[in-house]
Amino acid sequence: MTPTAEFKTALLAQVAQLRFFALSLTNMPDRADDLVQETLIKAWAASNRFQEGTSIRAWLFTIMRNTFYSDYRKARREVQDTDGEEAAKLMSYPEQGGCLDLQDLKIALAQLSEDHREAILLVGASGVSYEEAAAICDCAVGTIKSRVNRARQKLMELMGIDAPEEIGGEFLAAGDPLRVAMAQTG
Amino acid sequence: MERTQEPAAQKPPLEEKLQLHLGDKLKMLFAETARSPMPDRFASLLDQLESVGLKGVQPRNGPKHDGADDSSEACK
C-alpha cells in the first residue's frame, strides 16, 4: 500500500526529534543527518507496519536506533577516541551556532556511557516517557529509570555541581517563583 | 528478546532543585536543535518518495528498502 500524504506529514513533523536523537547517537552532525535520511526511507518502506494510534515517534526512534547499531556503530567508536571537548563540539549541528551556556553539559554528556547518554537524552531532553524509552531501547522500564538516575548523578559530578548553591545566578534567572522560593530556602 | 535489568542505583536521587536545573539544561539542548533550520534534504526526500516511491532512493549503507529488520520490533 502506498503511504498516505498524512503519513508523509507525520514523518516531516518528527524530523527535529529525529535529528536530535540521531545527534545523540552518532555525535557526528553529518552522519546524524544521514541516519535521519535512512530512517525516513526505511519508515516509508515499512509504512504498512505502522499501527495507527501508536506513537510514530517511538516507532521512528526504534528504526533509527536499530539502524544505528547495525550500520553506524563503528564510526561512533572512532569519535569516542577523541577527548570530551572534541566530542562535545560534535554535538551541535553547524547551523545551530552552539550555545556557550550548554558547553559544559555537552562535554559531560560526551563522557557518559552510550546507554546512559541515550536514556537521559530520551527522557530528559526529548520528553519521551520511561515506558516509551524502554520500548525504544528494548529493556525494562526499571532499567531506563536506573540509567537516567545514574546519568543525572554522573552529569552533575562531571559538571562539578553537587549542591544547589553551586549552580549560580542562571538558576534563579529562570524566574520561576517556585524555584526562587526553593533556592532561598535551600 | 531478553530484557536486561541493571541493579538499582546506589546513590539516592539528586535533590529536586538539581534535577530541575539539569532538566532545564537538557530541554535547552533539545531546543537548540529544534530551533535550527531543517535542511531541505528531508522535505525533498519525502517529496521524492511520495512522487516516485522508493525507486532511485538508496539508503547510504545499502539497498535494503523493506525496513523489515529495523521496524519489526516497533510494530509488534
UniProtKB/TrEMBL annotation, chain A:
Entry-linked InterPro entries: RNA_pol_sigma-70-like, RNA_pol_sigma-70_dom, RNA_pol_sigma70_ECF_CS, RNA_pol_sigma70_r2, RNA_pol_sigma70_r4_t2, RNA_pol_sigma_r2, RNA_pol_sigma_r3/r4-like, WH-like_DNA-bd_sf
Segments forming domain RNA polymerase sigma factor 70 region 4 type: 108-155
Pfam short name (any one): Sigma70_r4_2
Keywords: DNA-binding, Sigma factor, Transcription, Transcription regulation
Annotated ranges, domain RNA polymerase sigma-70 region: 17-77
GO molecular function: DNA binding; sigma factor activity
Gene Ontology biological process: DNA-templated transcription initiation
Keyword Disulfide bond recorded: no
Family classification: Belongs to the sigma-70 factor family. ECF subfamily.
UniProt protein name: RNA polymerase sigma factor
Biological source species: Rhodoblastus sphagnicola
TrEMBL record, chain B:
A Pfam entry, by short name: NepR
Domain Anti-sigma factor NepR, residue spans: 21-51
Domain of life according to the entry: Bacteria
Residue ranges, annotated region (Disordered): 54-76
Segments of skewed composition (Basic and acidic residues): 63-76
Stored InterPro entries: NepR
Protein name, per record: Anti-sigma factor NepR domain-containing protein
Organism (species): Rhodoblastus sphagnicola
